Amino acid sequence: MSNYEPDSIDKSILLILQGDLDDSRQPYLKIAMNLGITEDEVFKRVKNMIDEGIIRRLGAMIRHIEAGIGFNGMVVWVTPPDDVDTVGRLFASFPEVTHCYERPPFGKKGANLFTMVHADSEDACMEIIKKMSQACGVKDYEILFSERELKKVSMTYFDDSE
Amino acid sequence: MDEKDKALLNEIQSNFPVTSRPYQSLGDRLEIDEDEVLKRIARLREKGIIRRIGASINSRRIGFVSTLLAAKAPENKFDDFVRLVNQCEGVTHNYLRKHEYNVWFTLIAPSEEDKKRVIRDLVEKTGIEIIELPAKKIFKIRVDFKF
After folding, report:
1. Same domain (yes/no): B39, B71
2. Which chain B residue shows the shortest CA-CA distance from A88?
3. Which of A110-114, A152-156, B66-70 shows the lowest mean pLDDT across its residues?
4. Which site among A5, A38, A56, A106 would you substitute to test the B interface, given the most B Cβ atoms closer than 10 Å to its Cβ?
5. Do A150 and B98 make contact, defined as CB atoms within 8 angstroms?
6. Which of A70, A117, B25, B126 has the fewest Cβ atoms within 10 Å of its own Cβ atom?
7. Where exactly are the structural domains of chain A?
């Protein structure tokens, strides 16, 4: 990834895009008029920030509970240090796995790979987790099922005062 | 949700068009017109399925730090702890989980110092120990869901 830093116009665009686009038929034109630049300039900058990895994703944010895939299990895996890369990449290839990270050792056994598995039920979650374990041969894992979502918001990065 | 809604959700989560008339572009891909795209989006918003339409920003890429935190909150302190955690601006996700460590939350902060200060404040105010598990390596972040 390059070291492209968003300038003040980019930040103004991000400030709008981190919120909610209303259902205006021409949302980019609206941003352009707000910032006193052309719509083409907005396109160029948005595309550039996507290419640069500053915008990870542009689109609809979903409430997965309402969408019927409300079950998520965080699974922590005790993986031999030399296998972390191989197993991490293997887990990442499962479509039901939305997040996969190596983290510092957790718990008495030192679980070091963390995955988030999304499904429509606890049983479905369990099935996927079993398959993951079989695929990589890691038998030592712990599942931390979500009981309740206590907070879920999008981060506000740049406020108006900046 | 019918098949068109599902197709729309699959498309709109990560491929929101960067075009003058994005809803028309979406409609072209799904073979429905702009009005129907907007109508379906409005309905998915009403149902609470679409939370917002916008950008997910890579916090690391703009110099922010993010981390995962966990705590063992006893029943008698649980509500107060969760209230104080959720009050923190940079806490974006917080889950109650079936585990000895029952509260798991993510924190995004403008700097390492800010992050440490937020954690220190929480520990001081609540008397509950917090463990930090920042990512050492990211294998996958996929926040769009297949319908």
Report:
1. no
2. B139
3. A152-156
4. A56
5. no
6. A70
7. 8-51, 71-145
Closest residue to B97, CB basis, from A84, A97, A146: A146
Verify whether the Cβ–Cβ distance A55 to B56 is below 8 Å: yes
Q: Which two tokens stand for residue B124?
A: 């001081």
Q: Which residues contact A110 (CB under 8 A, 6 or more apart)?
A: A78
Whole-number pLDDT of residue B143: 65
| Residue range of the domain that includes B83 | 64-132
Which residues have C-beta within 8 Å of that of residue A104, sequence separation ≥ 6? A112, B133, B134, B136
- For residue B21, tell me if it sits in a domain: yes
Do B70 and B108 fall within a single domain? yes
- Tens digit of each residue's pLDDT (9 = 90 or more) over B127-140: 999 999 999 999 99
Cα distance between residue B118 and residue B18, in whole Å: 37
pTM: 0.83
Question: Which of B56, B86, B104 is facing A57, going by the closest CB pair?
Answer: B56
Which of B91, B103, B135 shows the shortest C-beta gap to A102? Answer: B135
Length of chain A: 162
Whole-angstrom Cα distance, residue A112 to residue A91? Answer: 13
**Would the CB atoms of B140 and A64 count as touching at under 8 Å?**
no
ipTM rounded to 2 decimals = 0.83
- What residue type is assigned to position A150 of the chain? L
Helix axes A39-51, A8-17, angle to 10 degrees: 90
Q: Is pLDDT of B34 > 70?
A: yes
Q: Does domain A71-145 have CATH number 1.10.3720.10?
A: no
